[in-house]
Design goal:
Chain A: It holds the Pfam family UreF. The complex is a heterodimer of chains A (251) and B (279). Chain A has 251 residues and is mainly alpha-helical. Helix content of chain A is 62%, strand content 0%. The chains are: A mainly alpha (251), B mainly beta (279). The interface between A and B is large, with 53 and 45 residues.
Chain lengths: 251, 279
Amino acid sequence: MTSPHALSVAMLLADARLPSGGHAHSASLEPALLGGMPTGAVPAWLVGRATTVSLVEAGTAVVTARLFAAASEGPLTGASAGASDGAQVADPFDSFGLADVVGAWAARTPAPALRDAARLLGRGYLRLARTLWPDAPAVRALVAHDAVHGPLPRAIVLGAVAAATGLPAADTVRLTVYDDAQTAASALLKLEPLDPVTPARWVLEACAAAEQHVLRVAACTTPEEIPASGSPQTEGWAQAHALLSQRLFRA
Amino acid sequence: MAERTTTPTRTDRPMLHAGLPAPSATRVTRVAVERPTGFGAPVRVRTSDGLLAARLVARDGARAEVALVAGGAMLLGGDHVVVSVQVDSGCALTLTDVGGTVAYDGDGQACRWDADIRLGPGAGLAWAGLPFVVAGGADVRRTTTARLGAGAGLTLRETVVLGRSGERGGRVLLRTDIADGVGPILVEELAAAGDRPVPGVLGDHPVIDTLTRVHGSLGGSPDGGHDRPGTASGAGETPGLGDATTLHLERGGVLTRWLGAATHLSPLELTPDRGSAGS
């Protein structure tokens, strides 16, 4: 069977029409607006996300992809150096540190509302991935892990898809940044009346701001190297939003 | 490391000699609490001074209280404060700051503040830090690294203020890295600049006040704390904390954080809880 180009896979994953559940999320935008952030601050806020929390997600995906790529080249390759001593799960991928990557991501995501949102999105992504790439070892490993331990965050699933489809690390980073910004931008149009073209420019500005970080994040190979850049105000807004009954978006 | 007298002393207020730049060479401020040598004896406390001096305030058979005192004007450009804290198994330490810290305009020279914390199994550390002020023109990298033994408890208060009264403040990178034998518990890097506030990071708030309470896991399954889907995200909010945010970490432990306009408005408790050492 011929394979699609990695760019086609990236476009598919970034497409809002993809049935992965992303439409229920605003990438923290609704929590920010309800928390009092003025609409005029959205461009700077998008740049802030692109250079903080999006890089945590991107680094998590990149390291996940590296772990699976190393595993597919055979056990006990270089990546095993970062493996957990205590991996007990029978699945061979776990000895390469999948639990370590999840743990690194969780330690960098202190807000439970944001961990929950990421796991909901991960579930949707994994449902898609297991249908589109059912035989890919990375996807099968995640399905097995999910069955035992519960939902994996979206960044982990994206990393497995990247490994399964040959998506280059730098493009995995760009995809993560773009998807976050575009999710917020399209949510903005549902929350505030404005010219639909305007947020599109903001998305590209956010992507441009992240560009100086792309190669550094794409070079991450171990869980410890995943960026830890946080956004405390966003975390506060996310927790407050999770308690609201009247909201348009899940997070 | 020089062993200081272990006679409890009261410390004087720090004297700030504005005209005398502190030496820029890195000297480590060490505080080590070790188990008593015999029945009924107090814990042993070893200290050595760097840019911060360590003064023993009190001790008994299980716990000690040590005050950290600025030895001179700090932080100036090029200064590198290193604080190394070690608490042995079963012992507890309360660290207090005597006076807050100001990172001054370094005229283009950055400064650093690094704390390295090692807690043995069942050990406890409560560090009630006073405000760390990043003056306009300062460029600070401040890191806190902690490694917790099984069942060790860590309570940290960190208050960072961008700018003295009437100024917007310089640049600061805050990094917190807390882990135990199982893996990371909290890894966070916050970058802020007083003249370039970023909505979503700190917004316009000059004060970031954080109280972190975490414990080392008591053995068990290596990934026992991971991968559990969160339940009710907002559950467990602590009452009485006003507009502070309470974050329950995946590995257990709580981070309570307040962003605001001035330190005196913070709803966070000034000192760590009663369960800590010292008192």
